[in-house]
Design brief:
alpha/beta, rod-shaped, transmembrane, transmembrane helix, membrane, cell membrane, 6-stranded parallel sheet, 15 helices, 51% helix, Bact_polysacc_biosynth/exp
């Protein structure tokens, strides 16, 4: 299995086992997004398009877009609109321009209402066209000799040259022919000079900019809208919840293997027992609002506990308990009583300790065989992990710690071991309880697995069908 598959499986496990908590976080995020939308009033945006006839290079279009949002243009628009509290500096933050395909400059305006957004875009577009015409020399000073006036003078000079050439003696003398030739050369030179002037100043040959109609009145709010903020807040808090669980899992110090647990308690591992159960068992019901909230949100059990594995039959599970009792009998042959310490909140360990005590009592039954007698009597006590306190030593010969894997840190287990030492109990062993899924009960008519296998082998040997 690849690392990516493992990570996806981990995220799926978080969503399944912490769904209620993640939904609560999503609701909180939606409320935060709604509150944010109340702080920022709705905005509306619309655009006005301006056509620039002629041949324009990309850099020239970018320059015109910068001019459209310059302080000169926006200040003139603010003076024409006369909005209270909206000078040129504030309006410049609401105006933007960009060059589109087809020599078009789009000027966008943002305001609190659709009407004001429309007026702002139209006014800025109007002021931009006026300012651009002034720069080109079309309307700032009509009396000045600009490129257009020079072109008119050249045309007049060309016509005058033609009149002089026609009035001259048409080829009767050498002087008249030379004069007509010189006048033709002069007219050609003037035309070439005008062509070079147009090439040197392309803007002079371009037509005036045209506003392509008024800006459309916006029908909806500009992003981010209130709905977008609410959805974004819910998704953000949901993702933060998942990321928080992943971070906590990577930084978790809970012990998951039997050797680590035995080393933290400073004792030997006596064995692992199975506790059947189809559903994840909750911790013992606590008192107070915090315990109820934890149970309501589903945070009373760790989410990163692996799913219970399939278990064998009841005989196999009882055999594990008998082996633990046999190891206790071999390790403490003279002991008559042991204290079984179970951390509070570990429901799996509590059930395993109860089963272990029942098995020890059954082996000490006078009706049992003499070979199985001699297991110490077990007394189960619960110990708080936050402030561990173990009963003082009475008739016990030591303490047996029963707990489940993946629930406790080394510091918590060290605290339990210290509490046992304070009560003069030696930790004689550790038993790890593992949750398993019990197999469905076989009906009385179904043969055991071994019998079914034997029947199948016999039929195959005789050549019959299985």
């Amino acid at each position: 299995m690849s690392d990516e598959t493992i990570r996806l499986a981990t995220i799926g496990r978080i969503i399944r086992r912490r769904l209620r908590l993640l939904l609560v976080l999503a609701v909180v995020g939606a409320l935060v997004g709604y509150g944010t939308s109340l702080l920022f009033p709705p905005r509306y945006t619309t655009s006005a398009s301006i056509l620039l006839p002629g041949a324009w290079q990309e850099r020239e279009l970018l320059t015109q877009a910068e001019i459209a949002t310059s302080s000169v243009v926006v200040d003139r628009a603010a003076a024409a609109l006369r909005w209270s509290g909206a000078d040129g500096g504030k309006l410049r933050e609401r105006v933007s321009a960009k060059a589109a395909d087809g020599n078009i400059i789009k000027i966008s305006g943002t305001a609190e209402t659709p009407e004001r957004a429309q007026r702002l875009s139209d006014q800025v577009a109007k002021e931009f066209v006026s300012f651009a015409a002034r720069i080109a020399g079309d309307s700032a000073n009509p009396g000045a000799a600009g490129p257009e006036a020079l072109r008119q003078l050249v045309a007049q000079a060309g016509r005058r040259i033609t009149e002089l050439a026609d009035a001259a003696d048409p080829g009767r003398t050498v002087e008249s022919v030379q004069g007509r030739t010189e006048l033709t050369k002069l007219r050609t030179a003037l035309q070439e000079a005008m062509k070079k002037l147009d090439q040197a100043n392309p803007a002079a040959g371009k037509a005036t900019m045209v506003v392509m109609g008024p800006a459309a009145r916006p029908a909806g709010e500009a992003p981010p809208t209130r709905v977008q903020l609410i959805v974004a807040g819910a998704l953000l808090f949901f993702l933060l919840g998942v990321i928080g669980h992943l971070t906590a899992a990577r930084t978790s110090r809970r012990l998951r293997t039997e050797p680590e647990i035995a080393a933290a308690l400073g004792s030997a591992l006596l064995g692992t027992v199975d506790v059947p159960g189809e559903r994840p068992v909750h911790r013992p019901e606590g008192r107070g609002p915090q315990a109820r909230i934890r149970r309501l949100l589903g945070t009373d059990i760790p989410w990163d506990i692996t799913a219970p594995q399939a278990s064998g039959d009841e005989a196999g599970r009882q055999l594990r308990y008998r082996r633990v009792c046999a190891r206790l009998r071999d390790q403490l042959p003279a002991a008559r009583r042991l204290l079984v310490v179970v951390p509070d909140g570990d429901e799996i360990a509590r059930r395993a300790a109860g089963q272990l005590a029942a098995e020890a009592e059954a082996e000490n039954d006078p009706s049992a065989s003499s070979s199985s007698r001699g297991c110490p009597a077990l007394r189960v006590v619960g110990v708080s992990v936050s402030r561990p306190l173990v009963p003082d030593r009475d008739a016990e010969s030591g303490a047996l710690v029963v707990l489940s894997a993946g629930s406790w840190t080394p510091e918590e287990l060290a605290g339990i071991a210290g509490a046992c030492a304070d009560a003069r109990h030696e930790v004689v062993g550790v038993v790890v309880a593992a949750p398993v899924r019990a197999r469905p009960t076989r009906s009385a008519d179904d043969p055991p697995d071994g019998a079914a296998a034997a029947i199948a082998v016999g039929l195959a040997a005789r050549g019959g069908s299985v």
